[in-house]
Amino acid sequence: MARVSTALVLIAFFVVFPSMVLATQYVVGDDLGWSGDANYEDWVADKTFFVGDVLVFSYVATDHNVVIAANGDNYDNCVASPNFGVYDSGNDAITLNEAGTYYFLCSYHCDSLQQKVMVTVN
């Protein structure tokens, strides 16, 4: 009886919280990280993101930051304010909590290095 109860709890967990179970963690820029050296448009091109996935921005904290731009116009024009958050730890993990488009940029190098990435979440 205990095995049946445990099995039912596990099945319920996987049904209710599938994004937690199936979430993928991505290091933005792969081995190049969030350095400005990667082509982030190419990096994102072959990926499909889902609610619950996590983006990890790995960078030298004194050289870069991560800004979640408020909208596409701010992203296109490298405008860091207003925003939905600024991160500067050098190893920021950001969970994609809802479907939609997210706009990330480095406020120091968006213009000069095109250090920005747009992610669409299904």
Descriptive overview:
- With 122 residues, this protein is an alpha+beta fold.
- The chain contains five helices and seven strands, in the order ααβαββαβββαβ.
- Helix 3 links the parallel strand 1 and strand 2.
- The chain is globular and about 60 Å long.
- The chain starts with a helix and ends with a strand.
- The model has no long low-confidence stretch (mean pLDDT 90).
Keywords:
four-stranded antiparallel β-sheet, alpha+beta, 5 helices
**What percent strand?**
25-35%
Global morphology: globular
How many strands?
7
Radius of gyration, in Å, reads 17 Å
Low-confidence parts: none
Q: Based on helices, strands and strand pairing, what is the structural class?
A: alpha+beta
List the helices and strands and how they pair.
Layout: H1 2-16, H2 18-22, E1 25-27, H3 40-45, E2 54-58, E3 66-69, H4 72-76, E4 83-87, E5 91-95, E6 100-105, H5 110-113, E7 116-121
Parallel strand pairs: 1-2
Antiparallel strand pairs: 2-5, 3-4, 3-6, 6-7
Give a brief rundown of this model.
With 122 residues, this protein is an alpha+beta fold. Helices cover 29% and strands 28% of the residues.
